[in-house]
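Sequence only, no structure available. Ideas?
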Amino acid sequence: MQLRYGFRLYPQPAQRVALAQAFGCARVVFNDAVRAREDARAAGKPFPKAAELSQKLITQAKRTAERAWLGGVSAVVLQQSLRDAEAAHRNFIASLKGERKGPKLGAPKFKSRKDRKQSIRFTANARWSITPAGRLNLPKIGEVRVRWSRPLPVAPSSVTVIKDASGRYFASFVIDTDPAADLERMPRADQSIGIDLGLTHFAVLSDGTKIDSPRFLRRAEKKLKKAQRELSRKQRGSKNREKARLKVARAHAQVADVRREFHHQLSTKLIRENQAVAVEDLAVKGLARTRLAKSVHDAGWSQFVNMLAYKAARYGRTFVRIGRFEPTSQVCSACGHNDGPKPLDVREWTCSACGTVHDRDHNAAINVKQAAGLAVTACGAQVRPEPVLAQRDEAGSHGSPSDARAA
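Reply:
I predicted one. C-alpha cells follow.
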C-alpha cells in the first residue's frame, strides 16, 4: 500500500522565490498542454502524444526567448506537470466513456497564478535527497529545513512540495508500506464494533460508548467572523487585504488541522481495538444541502470513514459499509420489529412489539453491526455472521434519501 507522509517546510526567502518560480513554470507547462489538446480538438486533429508534447513544450520551448526561463527550474518538475495534464485528460475521457467510477469529470481546466494552492513533484530521477542534517535538498532550490514529526519508515519514492492557501509549505513523501511489518505493529483483537455517526454525538458505538462531537468549526466561529469582517473592509488589491486574507486562511487551516487530528486519533483507536468495524454509508452530499449543512461539514464524516477504510486495509482488519437505506433507526435491535421512521428529535423510543426501551443512536449502532454480520474469534479470524432475528416488513423498509439519518 502506498501512503503519504506530510511534514512542514520552512524555506528561506531566497528558497521561497525559487519555489514560486518552480510553481509558475509547472503551471505554464500544464496550461500549454491543455491548450495544445484544445487546439487539436478544435482543428479536428488527433490529440498529440505525451512524447510529442514533451519535445515541443519543454525541450524546444526552452530554446525560445518567450520560454527561456523554463530552464531555471528542474526538468523533472516540468515533466511531472505534463504527466498531470495527461492524467487529467485521460480521466476525463474515461469518465465520458463510463469506464471511471464516481462522479462525472469535466475537461482539464487552465490553472491560474491566483490559485491559492500550488504544488510541484520531484521523483527519484530528480536527485533530491535528505541530508544527514535532516534537511530536504531539492534541485535548483537548495536545502530546505523540515520539521520532522516522526521518522519515515522506508525510503520514499517521490516528494511533492505544496504551498497551501495560508502560505504554509509542506513536503508530502510517498512511501510503500511493508504489509508484514504493519501486521506486526497492530495487536490482535477479538472484538467487532458497529458505529453510528451523528451530530448530537460524533459517534456512538455498539458497546454503548458515546463520543462527543468536538464541533471545531462552531467553536472557532467567533474568531472566523472577526477575521472575515476585517477582510471585507480592506481595499481590493492592497497589501493589507492580502494580509487579512492570510489571516482568514490560517484560521480555517487551524480548524481543518485539529479536525483531521481528531479523526486520525479516533480511527486509529478503533482499528487497534477491534478486528472488524462496520459503519453506515451516509448520504453526506444530500445532508449538506439541508439546514444541517454547516454541522454536517463540521463533523467531516467522509474523511473519518475513509481513514477507517484505509487503516483497516493496511492493518489486516475487516471494514464493512452497510447500505444507507438500511433502517437502522427504525428496527428494534432486540426483536427485529420495524417501528417505522422517527423524527430527529426522538432520541429514545419504546418498541411496540417487545417493549424494549432504546436509545436511538445506540440501537442504530447495534443494528449497523448486525447488518454487517460481524463476528470474530479470539484469534482475530472472521467466522460466520452472528445470528440476527428475522426483520419484519422487510419489503417495505426502504425509505427515500431524505430518510438518511443525521443524528
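The first strand starts at residue 2 and ends at 10.
Hope that gets you unstuck.
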